[in-house]
Automatic annotation (TrEMBL):
GO terms for molecular function: asparaginyl-tRNA synthase (glutamine-hydrolyzing) activity; ATP binding; glutaminyl-tRNA synthase (glutamine-hydrolyzing) activity; transferase activity. GO terms for biological process: glutaminyl-tRNAGln biosynthesis via transamidation; translation. Heterotrimer of A, B and C subunits. InterPro entries: Asn/Gln-tRNA_amidoTrfase_suB/E, Asn/Gln-tRNA_Trfase_suB/E_cat, Asn/Gln_amidotransferase, Asn/Gln_tRNA_amidoTrase-B-like, GatB, GatB_C_1, GatB_Yqey_C_2, Gln-tRNA_amidoTrfase_suB_CS. Residues 331-478 form the Asn/Gln amidotransferase domain. Allows the formation of correctly charged Asn-tRNA(Asn) or Gln-tRNA(Gln) through the transamidation of misacylated Asp-tRNA(Asn) or Glu-tRNA(Gln) in organisms which lack either or both of asparaginyl-tRNA or glutaminyl-tRNA synthetases. The reaction takes place in the presence of glutamine and ATP through an activated phospho-Asp-tRNA(Asn) or phospho-Glu-tRNA(Gln). It catalyses: L-aspartyl-tRNA(Asn) + L-glutamine + ATP + H2O = L-asparaginyl-tRNA(Asn) + L-glutamate + ADP + phosphate + 2 H(+); L-glutamyl-tRNA(Gln) + L-glutamine + ATP + H2O = L-glutaminyl-tRNA(Gln) + L-glutamate + ADP + phosphate + H(+). This is Aspartyl/glutamyl-tRNA(Asn/Gln) amidotransferase subunit B. Its EC number is 6.3.5.-. The gene is gatB. Belongs to the GatB/GatE family. GatB subfamily.
Length: 479
């Protein structure tokens, strides 16, 4: 395996977050009853004319700029001809030789090392409909077609074949998703089909300049599926080459249940689609002043925000990278820091307990019931000594499940920290009297025993004693 290297390029389709479709006024709402959001234009009925959605063009330019692309002053729409039930016109309006954006790049980080991945082009097109199979695709007696998605505006982002492993492919897609989400042009929800990824994969002997025969992988709807599918396909192609067999240029699908890629059809070339300029749509002539205006309105992007988190909040590089992975998480963190000015402590809670509970419950940051203000209030209670760090864990869990304010949780559950010196002094005396062996060991130089004794005091006070006071009193009495 070490004698070969993979060459990987990704084609990523992203639905733009417009209210209406790219060439008509039909709604882009997700999840509506089948075939509710359709009209004569997106159904391709005779005699209708498409009119381009200006907001979709603006979003495409915005995405191109965020990906360091050159925006074309002149681009056009083309007809991509193929026959499939979910394509009512029997052609898709896309862009072929004159896309709206070209020659971009982004940077990924693999094991602490930055790598630049080139972006060949960003072009606009309309989405197709959706086939609803009555069973599995291979056994279904018939399929239904939902045209709600037909005509939803897409951008297709085509990378250079600069990736060499499944890890790099996943890192690229994660970074691309983050950048697009930061711009606000798409929600990039893979589970809803807002972001879909195809991978072109070939293998070649290490050191060889010539590319091998590539296969295109489809049907990868998660980062995990992308990693597994790319890894499998690389190994499959290497085994073919090693055994003297030929890799066939084809389109393959990923079967997640079986963990294998399966052949779908021979891979089409551009001439198979018989591209030609769409006669119903005028070319796009983009004014540079409009491009400059869109560029000036770009938000702070992930790399810039990560660098600022390191310099402004003095966070470790890893913390900053995790916290800026999505715009929503970074916003949540910053709102909390503005209310409780201890950036590292806030980072620990967001990356620790909050992330753990989000993963366990399957929630995104936007679905979390704890607001930044509530988290800041809980940290202030810790800072004042009202609750201990251990009690805070209990309070936080209740807040996560119910959305209650921390003060309310503390009051309802009677979780106020005990800071009464006389009361703690009494419990410490009882613990010392009940554990003579541990006291003897401590006085003999085994200082770690203090942790056990502190634990006994905390147990006796159901975790409510002020840990700092307990430590101090124990050491004074044992000395």
């Amino acid at each position: 395996m070490a004698q070969y290297e993979a060459v990987i390029g990704l084609e990523v389709h992203i639905e733009l977050k417009t209210d209406t479709k790219i060439f008509c006024h039909s709604s882009t709402e997700f999840g509506a009853v089948a075939n509710r959001h359709v009209c004569p234009v997106c159904l391709g009925l005779p005699g209708v004319l498409p009119v381009v959605n200006k907001k979709a063009v603006e979003y495409a330019i915005k995405a191109g700029l965020a990906l360091n692309c050159r925006i074309a002053s002149f681009s056009k729409f083309d007809r991509k001809n193929y026959y499939y039930p979910d394509l009512p016109k029997n052609y898709q309006i896309s862009q072929y030789d004159l896309p709206i954006a070209e020659h971009g790049h982004l940077k990924i980080n693999i094991n602490g090392t930055d790598k630049r991945i080139g972006i060949t082009r960003v072009h606009m097109e309309e989405d197709a409909g959706k086939l609803v199979h009555q069973g599995t695709p291979s056994t279904t007696p018939y399929s239904l077609v939902d045209y709600n998605r037909t005509g939803v505006p897409l951008i297709e982002i085509v990378s250079e074949p600069d990736m060499r492993s499944a890890d790099e492919a996943v890192a690229y897609l994660e970074k691309l998703k983050a950048i697009i989400q930061y711009t606000g042009v798409s929600d990039c929800k893979m589970q809803e089909g807002s972001l879909r990824c195809d991978a072109n994969i070939s293998v070649r002997p290490v050191g060889q300049a010539e590319l091998g025969t590539r296969a295109e992988l489809k049907n990868m709807n998660s980062f995990k599926a992308l990693h597994k599918a790319v890894t499998y396909e690389i190994e499959r192609q290497i085994k073919l080459v090693q055994s003297g067999e030929r890799v066939i240029q084809e389109t393959r699908t990923w079967d997640d249940s079986k963990g294998v890629t399966l052949s779908m059809r021979s891979k089409e070339e551009a001439h198979d689609y018989r591209y030609f300029p769409d006669p119903d749509l005028a070319p796009l002539v983009i004014d540079q002043r409009w491009v400059d205006e869109i560029k000036a309105g770009l938000p702070e992007l992930p790399d810039e925000r990560r660098a600022r988190f390191v310099s402004e909040y003095k966070l470790p590089e890893y913390d900053a990278m995790v916290l800026t992975a999505t715009r929503e998480l970074a916003d949540y963190y910053e709102q909390c820091v503005q209310l409780f000015n201890n950036p590292k402590l806030v980072s620990n809670w967001v990356m620790g307990d909050l992330a753990r509970m989000m993963n366990a419950s399957g929630r995104e940051i936007g679905d979390v019931l704890i607001s930044p203000a509530q988290l800041a209030e809980m940290l202030q209670l810790m800072d004042k000594g009202t609750i201990s760090g251990k009690i805070a864990k209990t309070v936080f869990e209740e807040m996560f499940n119910t959305g209650k304010d921390p003060g309310k949780v503390v009051e309802e559950k009677g979780l106020v920290q005990i800071s009464d010196a006389a009361l703690i002094d009494k419990v410490v005396d009882e613990v010392i009297a009940a554990n003579p062996k541990s006291v003897e060991d401590y006085r003999a130089g085994k200082e770690k025993v203090i942790g056990f004794l502190v634990g006994q005091v905390m147990k006796a006070t159901t975790g409510k004693a002020n840990p700092g006071m307990v430590n101090k009193l124990l050491k004074e009495k044992l000395s």
